[in-house]
Amino acid sequence: MRKQNEKTLLAVLFTALTSVSVQANTQTPDTLAKILETKEIKVCSPGDYKPFSFDTNGKFEGVDNDLVNKLAESLDAKVTIVKTTWKTLLADFEQKCDLAVGGISITLARQQKGLFTEPYFTNG
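RE: above sequence
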């Protein structure tokens, strides 16, 4: 069962790779092609939201980070974490990252900037 859940979550994260700026009349970059070419996944995270993604003395840990690491392994890529803040998350995502993690809630403003995976945790 755990293996099946892991595969499902990897598929969900793979979908997140298509997360790009969504604006009218602009060409959408092929995020997956870029990652396969550069062998690097740039991941934005505030790193302050346990159990999803949290910064422990410069090392990011948590469920979302575990999933990103599995995804990177499947793509033969390395993960580069881009430390961000909740205030600058959207701008940093658009300018610096391929995807973002850390228990990020779906909001209209965020949906206008990128695609979301299916939620795998509901809180509150």
